[in-house]
Amino acid sequence: ATAPASQPAVHYNLERAGDDGWAKMPEEWFRSAEAGTFAQNILAWQLPTGGWPKRPRMHLEGPDPTTAPAKRGSFDNGNTMSQMRFLGNRVRVTGDGRCREAFVKGLDFMLAAQMPCGGWPQEFPEPHSYHALITYNDGAMIGVMSVLRDVTAGKYPFVDAAHVERCGQAVDRGIECILKTQVTVNGQLTIWGQQHDPQTLAPAKARAFELPLLVSAESSVIVRFLMDLDSPSPQVRQAVHAAVAWMKHNALTGLRYEMWQQDSAVVADPSAEPLWARFYDQATGKPVFVGRDGVPKADLREIEQERRADYLWYGRWPARVIDRYEAWCAEHGEKPVD
């Protein structure tokens, strides 16, 4: 679709829009012809269960009617949450009835996908393999909880009171799961894994290169979510302090991470800002790198080039948490950890 001359076309990759990607679009855009076309396509992709399959750029074209539809909805890479963000804003701005029905159906899907432990899997219904684990990877569980939290906060006022109450209860159960899955090492709370077992709540293995390790990227997303709670409980405050203490202690200095099309490397640079490895060993607290052979290595250079080039092994994810931390402490009358 072509946007009116007064409204420049803004094309999103829906899968990468992020937890609040659609919320960043100006309100007037949701009235545009382009947004109407996006809505038509997104509605066509919604599954009977209420979720959406993992499919890049589904807002740009509808499904192929000759292809069998997917059986499971996905929360991977912002999927389902992004469609919900779009639909919610479309309804809020235009009152579109079909989008309202789809949004509420999506809420029912999210609520049904919550496991007895309070966590969310990567796929639903009947997830298999690692898709059935509590999934913090790529912001899956926190993305779902963020949508539900916004419903309870009145961001989508067209949602009925019964659904608002159920969403609030689901968020509370999700927070309990977050607190119970925070990893304890030698009696000290640390951070979280990418995936956790829904029975034991311990970090769990997913793909060959995703072992039950501590992960700084997804843990940063979790802590930011906890820090955004209006009235954090003593348990939530304890979790935040412990995670920030771990992040401060495990920052890597004097290193710069470089990525290019075919490879990546970490090089010495005394002037570089602090870095964090993506994965850390639970027992030793040291960075870990894992290739497709599933064997943990102590040095990035020891894994295959394909994995070095196609995965973020270092980043500054905790920096945003630490930057926000002192203000959070002041807001809640807490003493910052060193």
Description:
The chain has 338 residues and is an alpha+beta fold. It contains nine helices and 14 strands. The strands form seven sheets. It has a two-stranded antiparallel ribbon. A two-stranded antiparallel sheet has the order 3-6. A two-stranded antiparallel ribbon has the order 4-5. Helix 2 (81-94) packs antiparallel against helix 3 (97-113), helix 3 (97-113) runs parallel beside helix 5 and helix 6 packs parallel to helix 9. It starts with 32 loop residues before the first helix and ends in a 7-residue tail after the last helix. 39% of the residues are buried.
Short descriptors:
disordered N terminus, 9 helices, 338 residues, alpha+beta
N-to-C series of helices and strands: HEHHEEHHEEEEHHEEEEEEHEH
**Helical segment tally?**
9
Give the overall form: globular
The largest beta-sheet arranges its strands as: 1-2
Query: What gap, in angstroms, lies between the N and C termini?
Result: 53 Å
Structural class: alpha+beta
Radius of gyration: 21 Å
Strand content: 5-15%
Helix content percent band: 25-40%
Q: Mean pLDDT across all residues, rounded?
A: 92
Contiguous low-pLDDT stretches (5 residues minimum) are 1-19
Q: Quick one: how many beta strands?
A: 14
Largest sheet report: 2 strands, antiparallel
Question: What is this entry, summarized?
Answer:
This protein has 338 residues and is an alpha+beta fold. 37% of the residues lie in helices and 11% in strands. The protein has helices at residues 33-45, 81-94, 97-113, 140-152, 161-181, 216-227, 234-249, 305-309, 317-331, and strands spanning 73-74, 123-124, 134-135, 184-185, 188-189, 195-196, 214-215, 255-260, 263-268, 276-277, 279-280, 289-290, 296-297, 314-315.
